[in-house]
Amino acid sequence: MNSKKKLIAGNWKMNGRLAANEALLKALIAEIGNTACDVAVAVPAPYLAQVQSLAAGSGIAVAAQDVSQHEAGAYTGEISAAMLKDFGVCYVLVGHSERRQYHSETDVAVAEKTQRALAAGITPIVCVGETLQEREAGQTETVVKRQLAAVIHLNGHCISEVVVAYEPVWAIGTGRTASPEQAQAVHAVLRAQLSAASEHADRIRLLYGGSMNAGNAAQLLAQPDIDGGLVGGASLKASDFLQIIAAAC
Ligand code: PGA
Within 10 Å of residue 80's Cβ, how many Cβ atoms? Predict the structure, then answer.
């Protein structure tokens, strides 16, 4: 068992509008109290300022869903790590499977984004995970190890400064969650890979993501190598997200 503070991060994806965000955050803040775990919400970029202001002092950290691999300049539509920092962003998702799948993000780009985040003082949440086809072909370990290997040696930074999220692509938004045993098995592989690379690997939080909900969170979070959750759909409903937070603490 490990004694790290668990992290529950909501991933709103491309959902929310000003009024809905305010209602959701107010409902969370009203109930969250002095939770013993870390809580964050990864919100669409236009709402970072709104969420920064509403969440100030609440214990809910602001997270972004992506960051540019470039520092600054002629990259229309991109958002730099320094810009995220201006809005109090503490965490940023990097290499989410939807970015890898729909925006052709490569392992190299994921590594560059990870570096940019760290250089700006933002904790990257590096997402890894296999597709259903890869799982059925017996390639789960190979795929997640390749994705993690891309970020394991960081210039001037230690891998212990990142959070890693294992999100099997077949479990994202499908209602088909990995069983606690399936998730733990992959987390153990990732932990071993991290331990081989860093003497501080035990500090690294490994989150599980993929249809985590109020009903299955406690069992998943009880696994020895699961240090939190990256929660999509269930983070959009205050009561569900609060139950997941309660299951982590
Ligand atoms: P989900 O999404 O909880 O809706 O499956 C998780 C994620 O993609 O981060």
Answer: 18
Contact call for residues 184 and 223 (beta carbons, < 8 A): yes
- Given the residues 103, 167, 187, 200, select the one marked as catalytic: 167
Catalytic residue flag (residue 96): yes
Residue-number span of the structural domain to which 155 is assigned: 7-248
**How many structural domains comprise the chain?**
1
Q: Is residue 42 part of a domain?
A: yes
Kindly report the protein residue whose alpha carbon is nearest to atom 7 of ligand 1: 232
| Domain assignment of residue 45, yes or no | yes
Cα 232 to middle of ligand 1, angstroms: 4
For the CA of 209, the closest atom of ligand 1 is: 6
pTM > 0.90: yes
pLDDT tens digits, 30-65: 999 888 899 999 999 999 999 999 999 999 999 999
